[in-house]
């Protein structure tokens, strides 16, 4: 059994993910085992405990097989992405380049004002039918390089 959180193995997301399996909730001969998501069965208490608190926007089960990682990536990453609404208005010397998953965008402008205008045309898109509730954080890394008096880039 492997638990993925937003396409990343839970062990990389959480310090000590707790995945409990292979322990039947009951020992009735003709009753099949059940899978529970979001709580733990405490046999000594005869009830569910440690309930999940939060939002679960999607759950994908692949009984008796492990899904291909590329399928899992597509299920998760195809829904959240960045968009740039200024491609048709780029000036000479400006660039807007996405990574393959459209989750990172590199902008290149001739000056800070043009960069600011380009940045204002970047948008976050989540096309999931039931998006995960919560804030989305963006990291912006800016580097500026100046021209020398002879017109060359200074280091």
What does this structure look like?
With 155 residues, the chain is of the alpha+beta class. It has helices at residues 10-13, 69-77, 112-119, and strands spanning 4-5, 8-9, 40-42, 47-49, 80-84, 95-98, 105-108, 122-126. One of its GO terms (cellular component) is cell surface.
Brief digest:
One of its GO terms (biological process) is positive regulation of synaptic transmission. The chain has 155 residues and is of the alpha+beta class. It is 14% helix and 18% strand.
Described by its quaternary structure, the protein is single chain
Residue share in helices? Answer: 10-25%
Main β-sheet, in a few words? Answer: 2 strands, antiparallel
What is the overall number of helices?
Answer: 3
Rg of Cα set: 24 Å
Distance between the termini: 51 Å
Strand fraction:
15-25%
Give start-end ranges of low-pLDDT stretches: none
Shape: elongated
Spatial order of strands in the largest sheet: 1-2
- One letter per element, helices H and strands E, the order comes to EEHEEHEEEHE
The mean pLDDT is: 79
Give the number of DSSP strands: 8
Determine the structural class based on helices, strands and strand pairing. Answer: alpha+beta
């Amino acid at each position: 059994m492997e638990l993925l959180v937003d396409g990343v193995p839970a062990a990389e997301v959480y310090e000590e993910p707790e995945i409990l399996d292979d322990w039947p909730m009951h020992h009735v001969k003709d009753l099949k085992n059940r899978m529970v998501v979001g709580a733990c069965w405490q046999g000594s208490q005869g009830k569910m405990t440690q309930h999940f608190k939060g939002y679960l926007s999607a759950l994908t089960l692949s009984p008796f097989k492990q899904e291909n990682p590329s399928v899992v990536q597509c299920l998760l990453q195809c829904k959240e992405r960045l968009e740039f609404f200024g491609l048709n208005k780029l000036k000479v010397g400006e660039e807007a380049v996405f990574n393959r998953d459209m989750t990172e965008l590199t902008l290149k402008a001739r000056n800070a004002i043009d960069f600011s205008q380009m940045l204002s045309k970047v948008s976050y898109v989540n096309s999931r039918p039931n998006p995960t509730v919560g804030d989305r954080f963006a990291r912006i890394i800016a580097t500026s390089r100046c021209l020398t008096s002879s017109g060359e880039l200074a280091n």
